[in-house]
Amino acid sequence: MADEALAKSGLHFDELNKVRVLEPEYSQQTVELKEECKEFVDKIAEFQKIVSSFIDVVDKLSKEVEKEKMKAIGSRNLLKSIAKQREAQQQQFQALIAEKKTQLERYRIQYASLLKEESEQNEFIEQFILQK
């Protein structure tokens, strides 16, 4: 009965017979909630550590990817440059070939002309020798 009278006034006894303002059930739930909150906070802290380490790994990886990307861009630009150089060199060689063909044709014409002149001179010499 004394317990009921104290309970009506808002006072309760716990397992250790200490006077409490809260009912023992609510007190126990409060303690459990406190422990769960501590566990939750600990898990959140652990999660933050994991996320932080994951972010560090991803940052390092992104830097490596960016570095490799720049290397690839440099290589691609170098390859394009080499291709353009080869095209320019090919055009130079084609121009040189055309020039050499023109020169060859000129030499053929000159050779034919010289052969004709030699033939005429040989005829002249033969006629000159025969007239004597």
Polypeptide structure, described:
- The protein has helices at residues 2-8, 24-131; strands at residues 12-13, 19-20.
- The chain is mostly helical and 132 residues long.
- It has one domain.
- The chain has a two-stranded antiparallel sheet with strand order 1-2.
- The longest helix has 108 residues, at 24-131.
- It is rod-shaped and about 170 Å long.
- The relative contact order is 0.03.
- It is found in: Cell projection, Cilium.
- InterPro entries: FT20.
- Its main location: other.
- Residues 79-117 form a coiled coil.
- This is Intraflagellar transport protein 20 homolog.
List the defining traits of the structure above:
single chain; 132 residues; mainly alpha; two-stranded antiparallel ribbon; 2 helices; 87% helix
Order of helices and strands: HEEH
**Number of domain units:** 1
Mean pLDDT: 88
Helix content: over 70%
Helix-strand layout with pairing:
Blueprint lengths: L1 H7 L3 E2 L5 E2 L3 H108 L1
Antiparallel strand pairs: 1-2
Summarize the entry for a quick read.
The chain has 132 residues and is mostly helical.
